Amino acid sequence: MSILSKITIGAAGLTALGFSAYSVALIPTPLSTGIAPLTTVISPWSVTRSIVCSGDVVGYVGDSAIISSISPTARVVSGGDVPVDLARDSTTNGSVFTNSGDSLHVAATEYNSVNTESIAGYLATECGDPLNDQWLIGGSTTTGRDTIVTISNGSDVEARIDIEIWGSAGKVDAPGSQGIVIPAKSQRSYSVAGFAPDEASPVIRLVSNGAAVWATLQTTVVRGLVPGGLDRIGPVAAPNTSISFPVLLLPSEKSIGKLLVDPSYSDVVAALRFLAPGDTDATITITLDPYAEGEPQVVMASVPAGSTLDLPITELSEGYWAVSVESDQPIVAAARVGFNDASKGITDLAWASAAPAQTGVASVMVPGGSLLGLTNFGASDATVTIESGGGIVENVVVPAHGNLLRPVVKGMLTVTSSSSISNTIFVLTRDGIATLRGLTAPIDASSVVVIHG
Length: 453
Prior knowledge:
Blueprint: H1 3-16, E1 22-28, E2 38-44, E3 49-53, E4 57-59, E5 68-71, E6 74-78, E7 84-88, E8 91-99, E9 107-115, E10 120-126, E11 133-137, E12 145-153, E13 159-167, E14 170-171, E15 180-182, E16 186-191, E17 203-210, E18 214-223, E19 226-233, E20 240-250, H2 253-256, E21 271-275, E22 282-290, E23 297-303, E24 308-312, E25 319-341, E26 346-353, E27 358-366, E28 370-376, E29 382-388, E30 392-398, E31 402-408, E32 411-429, E33 432-436, E34 439-440, E35 448-451
Antiparallel strand pairs: 1-2, 2-35, 3-8, 4-5, 6-9, 7-8, 9-10, 11-17, 12-16, 12-18, 13-14, 13-15, 13-17, 18-19, 20-25, 21-24, 21-25, 22-23, 22-25, 25-26, 27-32, 27-34, 28-31, 28-32, 29-30, 29-32, 32-33
């Protein structure tokens, strides 16, 4: 069989897999044998991509089983068509934005500040591409803490969801967490306390049998009668041995120190949450690298297999830090930081999901008041192109095994690199704090390279 015959069969196979709307370019590449096979670069002519947003800030009070909308989130969108609303009981909540043009530059972010008797704080969360398997790390179901998982199905077929939950004592027996049906074009929200009551450090795995879905965690805090803390947490796709939080703002002792005499404020202390979901304990090395002057701090720890671990980050100076974690076993992780403005009586917190290492174009809408952190796990320097605000372009170099911090302006932000780069955007406002991540498009929305021979 000739090489050209192989290419013809390969293209037919790709058509059967749903890659029919792709152009094909043939590029010779060297082999160690000295024979130059052909590389097929398959590029989409037009791809419909859907970005799902979770929608309103929702509330869940005490032992009530009712979850209701508290306040609608604002959305900033680039490249999306008119959204399709998702049904939730007798109302609508959440939206699906579609795009059939340049799918690499589609992004949406939702954000809001809330100040009610039961919820106060600020959230900003990227909308994302649906997944069949995802992990949500953050929140608590102890007294005064509500954590709500919202599952959005923007497809035309139903999804059947299985939820697994781990806590500090191991895997949680969670009745009612299997076989949850999310109908087409709909959304459901559930209190995590209904599955794992009085759990200080939950980690959730959500598997969809059927349609892919987008899931988020909303966490709120009430101390006595005073609300103070709101965030929404996006998913990570899979456990990994390299975890990155490219930028976190650690508060000053002056701003939060006086709160800590009250144990109910312990969750404003910066911390990292880990889970090693396999059967083997994970040995981790945490590197905390200041963007200001100072030396990196390195901490080693052991994460017991099958149970969650919260590690406080203490005795570090105020300011922006990059945090990276190397593990000898696959882990999932999230980071929490606190915020307090005594002059305005505002207390808030933010959970940062791990930022995936990505090549290509990562996109996110930025609401303003933001700093972009970049982390390069690679052994070589990486050149990265940053475009923000619809026209400001900057080429920067992220050093090998290093980090870089840059201010960005409100609007569309793209981070483009041919090397694997992690990114996080830290949002600091007068109402509180939040984190965002720029995410790349799924593989079926970008070029695919196939080497023949």
